[in-house]
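Re: the 555-residue chain
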Amino acid sequence: MANKTPIRAVFNDSNVATGLAEFQSGDTIALTHGGLGASLSIGSAGQVLKVNSGASALEFGFVEAVVNIDNATNLESATLATGDKFLISDGGTEGRATLAQVDTLFSGTSKTLTNKTISGSSNTLSNIGNSSLSNSAVTVGSTSISLGASSTTLAGLTSVTSGTVNIADRHIKTTDSTNLVLNEAIDISSAGAITAGSINLSGNAVISGNLTVSGSTTSVETTNSTISDKLIELATGTSGTPSGDSGIIIERGSSNNAFIGFDESADKFIVGTGSFTGSTTGDLTISTGTLVANLQGNVTGDVTGNADSATALANARTIAGQAFDGTGNITIASTDLSNTSAIALLTASQALTNKTISGSNNTLSNIGNSSLSNSTVTIADDSSTAVNVPLGGGFTILGGSGITTSLNGSEMTIATDGAVVTETSTDTLTNKSLNFANNTFTTTLAQLQTAVSDATLVDLDDSQTLTNKNIDSDNNTITNIANADIKSSAAIAFSKMADLTASRALVSDSNGDVSVSAVTSTEIGYLDGVSSAIQTQLDAKAAKSFAIAQAVALG
């Protein structure tokens, strides 16, 4: 059935119907007017016109009955945002609002929650007083701690089962001085430094990282220790010139301890015993011990002792034709030697060739001249005249004028007679020359004058007149000589004359003798450069013309 356009009456300005016309867009019919053949009631305030539940007619109703949420667009899987909108009635005024307004409402309003579960990991609860809690205390072990309070002591704590326990000051101790016993395995692989006076572990301790012990002594009291390390370094950190012995010390109770290590002062490995302990440092006093082991390589020093079971050589040997296995002594005769012709035997007569025999360590006897390569001895006199005296031959020492020789056993005596002058003999010399420069004479001048029959000899201690004598002034000092006593041709060195007064001029007196004047050498120097008579020059200086010239010059 097609839609029909309704007809309406057309009225003039006087409200008089003048004809009919179709309803136009915007034309309405007031329901208060009659003429519809039915009575239409108006709904109450706030209602809207809607289709009835039977979809057969229109009726008035409230808006909540009009909005069909079940048939609206499904947004159940959408993520809500604070800007999303919804319908709301605010005191009778309907409209839209956002979810942000709801968030503001609940965040700024105190509400009482009943039978609600709040996640502690996702929420923060603050300002909760004990009175607001059904249980206002927490019991740890046998210690009850009020919420909001604190406690530094926990009594009756038997176990802590949490994954991690953080201790702020890193100290765990007991007040009764007993040890802290940790019965279970403890993993400290990720922990920091642990500082304690002592840690006793009754179980196994597994350390996956490095272990550094900074104390002075490390004690291991196990029965046996197994170490997987192939190298063990002692005295680690040593630098420069090493000092002090290092090694392994074995504690032996009341007996001296044993040492296996390196003696630094001797620069040798050593095994021995001593009174040292594991805390001893420096050079140890070590008594050499006995090492029981198989040796391979070079051995320096004496080797003593005997093999435990050695009674014979493992392989018998032959020495100079004699069998030797070490079980007994053998005798080697000279005939057993393979080269007897090249061996000198003490009991055989043999010729030695190119051999050197020390005369200081051996005695040679019964050697004839013919057995010596040089059978003579050369003897020379002071004029280099030499003779060869055969060894084993004779050599005669002859006497001469005033000298006799004699033999008495192995001694020879050389004597002199009166013809030989000696230091202790009194002799008369005839036709002999004596060198006064090389000899000392004790004879007096009178004896000498008598001996030489010459009265002209000069006595140095007496005053005498010398005639025709030459005195060398270079080698003698001449004093108190007057000028008249000096020949014009004589020359006497000043060093040989008596010293004069220093720095004085010499003048000659009326006798022509030289003497010292009062004029000094400095005053003599004032005359140096004088070209004419000094008095003449002084008179010229004092002339009237000079005085005038000087006055003019000086003003």
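Helices lie at 99-107, 445-452, 521-525, 534-541, 544-554.
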